Write a sequence for this structure.
């Protein structure tokens, strides 16, 4: 098994990790409702589940 010959310093380790950054998720606009949502995901709006601009499920409202 391979083992490091020398300890890697904290500075060297942290230099390698400088490229790990948080990015804002890309959002898509629904063609039907105009709602912003994550692409390739279904989303709820006003008691309806939309996917690719189509209503998939309508939630029953208890009165």
């Amino acid at each position: 098994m391979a083992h490091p010959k020398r300890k890697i310093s904290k500075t060297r380790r942290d230099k390698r990790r400088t490229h790990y950054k948080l990015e804002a998720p890309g959002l898509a606009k629904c063609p039907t409702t105009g709602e912003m949502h994550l692409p390739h995901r279904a989303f709820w709006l006003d008691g309806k589940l939309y996917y690719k601009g189509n209503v998939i499920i309508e939630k029953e409202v208890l009165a």
Q: What stands out?
A: The two ends are 67 Å apart (CA to CA). The first helix runs from residue 10 to 16.
